[in-house]
Specification:
Radius of gyration: 22 Å
Bound molecules: flavin-adenine dinucleotide
Number of domains: 3
Structural class: alpha/beta
Number of strands: 20
Strand order of the largest sheet: 8-7-16-17-18-15-19
Largest sheet: 7 strands, mixed
Strand content: 15-25%
CATH architecture of the largest domain: 3-Layer(bba) Sandwich
CATH superfamily of the largest domain: FAD/NAD(P)-binding domain
Number of helices: 16
CATH topology of the largest domain: FAD/NAD(P)-binding domain
CATH class of the largest domain: Alpha Beta
Shape: globular
Length: 494
Amino acid sequence: MTKAAIIGSGIGGIATAIRLAVKGYAVTVFEGSDTFGGKMQQFDLQDYRFDAGPSLFTMPHLVDELFTLAGRTPSDYFTYTRLDPITHYFWPDGSRLKAYADPEAFATEAEQQLGVPRQAVQDVLRKSARLYTGTANTFLHKSLHRLDTYLSTDVLKALGCLSDLGLTTTMHAANAQQFSDPRFVQLLDRFATYNGSDPYQAPGTLNLIPHLEHNIGAFYPKGGMYAIASSLVKLAEELGVVFRYSERVERIRITANQVTGIDTTKGSYDAAVVVSNMDIVPTYRHLLPDQPAPEKILQQPRSSSALIYYWGIQREFPELHLHNIFFSQNYQEEFEHIFRQKRISQDPTVYVNITSKLEPQDAPAGSENWFVMVNVPHHQGQNWEALIDSTREAVQKKLSNMLGIPIAPLIQAEQVLDPLLIEQKTSSFAGALYGSSSNNRMAAFLRHPNFSSKLKGLYFCGGSVHPGGGVPLCLLSARIVDNLVPAPNQVKSV
Ligand code: FAD
């Protein structure tokens, strides 16, 4: 059988392994750490269970598709429920809003709680849908780096919504033009953080993101986000994929511009196809040191990172749900801190995710498991120990004020994740969550392609390459790689 080697078992690597196994390759996944999932991990802290990484799940059909592709029934492996409401929003002025899944109910709530005209809310969601359907086939579903992408009718469709594309404006400017209420603008601007960008710099095109959550829906996987990775690994193993843990890849072997295999900490393996799910920067710097690196792409500004406090909280908060956002007073200042000053504002927007709201066994009775996250700069030499302490204090003060009860005495257990640890655990360059940021108009074109134009047999998937970071886009990167890799009988065995 023709051999394929995958470097890394992040969600993109697992999905690619499944696709290539279905295609007929003998697939081995080499993983540097002792388990699968990359950023998608879970852990127990005393009697609390936490999802360590991603917490918001959109586009579940991309997971289902992998089971269907392998001839399985998705629900035999993996189930999820649609969230309604999706998110509870809290502002410093005391206003609150529940973002209902149903666009009508969401518009009514925005009108009742914030005085935003319901028609304008419905219009903005429709516009987001138009943006998404007009551009997804060109920008997300295919390689942007092949001529046939530009020769398809999808490009005409994208050109058809050129006026909506927002290429000449920023996300924030587009939102502020449509809404006079700064709170609703802040709610819409927040979607820039879904790929680690800054709404005051990112192009208005990113205003397609609300469509994913508000029109297609937000979901919760039974068993937590980790169930996405664990159910897919189960499928991969059934298909014969071999996972080799604690086996770091050190080199991609090349002969005459053709991939011939990989060298790991434990041995040397032949492969006609190699797919790197490792961040693109260390892939070139460490695994391909003798090859010319695409410097312009590798030097694109990185996305933001995150500081997370996992807290076991000895109390229940009926006003909170699975996803909760506590907004800052001054959003622009917050993003200036992250992207220009490389610091953390003392009044950050705080995201609190509580899976025990849906899975009571994730926390002891009468308690809740709080995943408390603040967007922060990627690592550029900051003193994280000091930042962890000062941010903890700021977050506790903010949540105590906005919930009307001191939070610190309720914290029974704590674990912290910072950009340095994220880099250490997953080799994500500078601890960025989503590879490069989307803070400029050309960002989509400056992500690395899913293939190498110079080295035959070498492909790339995951959050640091096209089409970008976040679980759904990583799954799409695997689909694109699948479309690029020839059938095994068309590949010269090594
Ligand atoms: P990664 O998860 O980056 O994994 C790469 C794997 O490669 C790792 O297992 C690593 O050990 C392995 N590896 C690296 N180098 C080597 C080597 N040399 N040899 C062998 N193995 C190697 N996304 C969402 O959609 N929704 C969210 O709510 C969300 N929130 C997030 C919150 C946090 C705290 C974090 C960290 C991320 C979040 N994301 C979210 C982003 C999402 O988790 C990532 O985009 C996605 O999981 C990345 O998957 P990946 O395929 O790029 O691989």
